[in-house]
């Protein structure tokens, strides 16, 4: 998929982790095709808490569709109990990467908020078999064949937003 850089080619350093409110590269549909821009992850919700994940079920998403470029994402689970150890212990950290691909995209949504400007959130769905043992939701992971489809608002969201099939994601325990 050809991509334009309307704001110039960003000079983004490699990072181990993108944190809520950080700026990150996304791809959006522009008048002349796909455009790579850098925007903030999360917008302030009605209570002031950041909206960094957004449920996709039952929604159309007629505008604001974006691709969030990633080479992995993390999920966290409670550490198993250990006799004599403090009850509050660091959570286990799991890295999910796409099998056979150096990077992938996560379906996202871009909107403008007066207090932060343009910001994006990741869309979630029910977990596929690779994620279900670790979390009750998953971000919508898109393979290359779905990138252009997701950016096209004429394609029904339900045709693209679905759990990843078994074997799509490789899981590695980080902590």
TrEMBL record:
Looking up Pfam families in the UniProt record yields: SRAP
SUPFAM superfamilies in alphabetical order: BB1717-like (SSF143081)
Superkingdom of the organism of origin: Bacteria
Q: What is its EC number?
A: 3.4.-.-
Q: Which top-level enzyme class is recorded in the Swiss-Prot or TrEMBL entry?
A: hydrolase
Enumerate the UniProt keywords alphabetically.
Covalent protein-DNA linkage, DNA damage, DNA-binding, Hydrolase, Lyase, Protease
Q: What is one process in the GO biological process aspect for this record?
A: protein-DNA covalent cross-linking repair
Q: One GO molecular-function annotation for this sequence?
A: single-stranded DNA binding
InterPro entries registered for this protein in UniProt? SRAP (IPR003738), SRAP-like (IPR036590)
Q: Which Gene3D superfamilies match?
A: SOS response associated peptidase-like (3.90.1680.10)
Question: Family assignment?
Answer: Belongs to the SOS response-associated peptidase family.
The protein depicted here goes by the name: Abasic site processing protein
